[in-house]
């Protein structure tokens, strides 16, 4: 094998470094993990087992197990069984743990029992990023993404799914009964064997039908009329593609536009983003430590009460308006075609007439003012405007806040592109790390812990790329 790079003979003696530390370079990210965990106050963060028991077998220190998990998620090894293997063959992990080799049950139990503390560690690293002045712009992009869980779609039931499954089973029973009648009319031995198999299938389907009937009662009794058998907290959620819904969780994230760091995140089992804006924006402002904040979001977050709550909290939201006008969809004038004049509290319609405030009403807890004019019946544009006697416009008492936000968006159309290129990249990166089945754990509480580990790993990798290992460790030791 000439003209090739040759390896060493396996039987040849080799002089390896005497010290294990010599295998790990000074700029290896594993050293950053070691310094970061060593500088944490694990007892104050709420980790179990920081103070050892006076009796019984000695336990592993929480710092060692936390280092294993941070290293695992940073290197796309989230499984406790795979981490158990890596502790005995991965040189970086051997160095990090001091040659400790905990079994997979110990590793998994640590993640299960220390969820709030692990999430606090994630927030602690965001605080370190604030200390490094990485959030100087005070602008975040907020978005949500659906993450799959171990619960298959066939193990998630809604009233519509149950009805469809019952219908399928009934059709199968009818088909097998017809085939059984055909087999009974034949006298051959083979036909008798086939009839026996058909009877077994029919019995199994009837048993399945009974299970579905019992499950239907449970689904109807559930608060949201939905049940997941594998992960009880997971929910079926619609996605943009037709027929591509997933069973999982809705992960909310607020991402810094300057360095694309995730400053705040939350895991919910609500399939909608409506109502999430103010909570995520306030979490982001607290994490970044800024008195004011600008929050960018897509039209799925458009909700008047949320936008008003942000304004009152000193947060400037930028959310495109949802185009939900039924009149516009039917080819008539929409509300956006009516111009509001704040000086005299009137609307100007497309025909130039003035709509004045006539009365007020309360809908869904919101005070709405109604505007109309008596000139609609003789208007030449009436057919393009309304099918009723008069065209009425409703205006929320705080709609001036929404109008001001829309004016900001009209003046800065690039905010939509900025939001998309900021917040969608972290979601794509984390999902690529996770693989086909995203979350490995079950129930909302444990999934929140797992997501915090992913966010911590993502932020750590971003800061390493921005600053490098040396400066980052120097700040951690201060």
Compose a concise summary of this entry:
By secondary structure, the chain is of the alpha+beta class. 46% of the residues lie in helices and 15% in strands. It is flat.
Give a description of the structure:
Strands 1, 4, 5, 6, 7 and 8 form a six-stranded mixed β-sheet that branches. α15 crosses α16 (469-477). This protein is flat. The protein is built from 16 helices and 13 strands. The protein has helices spanning 29-38, 42-45, 62-74, 80-89, 91-97, 104-113, 115-131, 159-184, 189-221, 277-288, 304-312, 326-329, 399-411, 414-434, 444-467, 469-477; strands spanning 139-148, 156-157, 227-228, 235-237, 246-256, 262-268, 293-296, 315-318, 339-341, 346-348, 354-363, 366-372, 393-396. It has 478 residues and is an alpha+beta fold. 46% of the residues lie in helices and 15% in strands.
């Amino acid at each position: 094998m000439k003209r090739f790079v040759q390896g060493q003979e396996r039987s040849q003696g080799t002089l390896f470094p005497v010290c294990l530390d010599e295998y790990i370079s000074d700029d290896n990210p594993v050293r950053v993990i070691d310094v970061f965990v060593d500088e944490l106050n694990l007892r104050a963060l709420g980790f179990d087992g920081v103070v050892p028991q006076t009796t019984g077998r000695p336990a592993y220190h929480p710092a060692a197990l936390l280092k294993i998990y941070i290293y695992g998620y940073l290197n796309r090894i989230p499984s406790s069984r795979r981490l158990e293997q890596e502790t005995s063959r991965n040189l970086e992990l051997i160095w990090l743990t001091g040659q400790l080799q905990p079994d997979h049950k110990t590793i998994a139990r640590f993640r299960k029992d220390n969820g709030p503390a692990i999430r606090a560690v994630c927030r602690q690293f965001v605080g370190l990023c604030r200390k490094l002045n990485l959030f100087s712009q005070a602008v975040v992009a907020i978005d949500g993404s659906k993450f799959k869980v171990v619960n298959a779609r066939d193990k998630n039931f809604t009233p519509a799914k149950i009805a469809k499954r019952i219908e399928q089973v009934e059709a199968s029973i009818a088909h097998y009964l017809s085939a059984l009648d055909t087999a009974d009319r034949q006298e051959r031995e083979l036909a008798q064997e086939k009839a026996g198999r058909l009877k077994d299938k029919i019995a199994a389907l009837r048993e399945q039908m009974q299970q579905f009937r019992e499950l239907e009662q449970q689904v109807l009794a559930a608060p949201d009329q939905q049940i997941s058998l594998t992960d009880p907290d997971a929910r079926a959620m619609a996605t943009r593609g037709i027929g591509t819904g997933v069973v999982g969780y809705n992960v909310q994230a607020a991402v810094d536009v300057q360095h694309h760091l995730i400053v705040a995140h939350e895991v919910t089992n609500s399939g909608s983003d409506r109502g999430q804006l103010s909570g995520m924006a306030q979490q982001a402002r607290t994490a970044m430590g800024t008195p004011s904040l600008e929050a960018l979001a897509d039209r799925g977050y458009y909700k008047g009460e949320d936008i008003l709550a942000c304004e009152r909290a000193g947060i400037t939201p930028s959310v495109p308006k949802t185009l939900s006008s039924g009149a516009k969809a039917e080819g008539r004038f929409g509300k956006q075609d009516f111009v509001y004049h704040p000086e005299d509290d009137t609307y100007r319609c497309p025909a130039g007439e003035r709509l004045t405030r006539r009365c007020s009403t309360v809908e869904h807890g919101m005070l709405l003012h109604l505007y109309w004019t008596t000139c609609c019946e003789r208007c030449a544009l009436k057919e393009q405007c309304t099918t009723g006697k008069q065209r009425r416009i409703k205006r929320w008492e705080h709609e001036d806040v929404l109008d001001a936000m829309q004016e900001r968006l009209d003046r800065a159309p690039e905010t939509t592109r900025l939001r998309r290129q900021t917040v969608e990249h972290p979601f794509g990166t984390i999902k690529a790390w996770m693989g086909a089945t995203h979350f490995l754990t079950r129930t909302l509480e444990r999934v929140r812990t797992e997501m915090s580990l992913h966010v911590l790993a993502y932020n750590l990798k971003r800061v390493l790329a921005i600053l490098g290992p040396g400066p980052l460790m120097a700040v951690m030791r201060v």
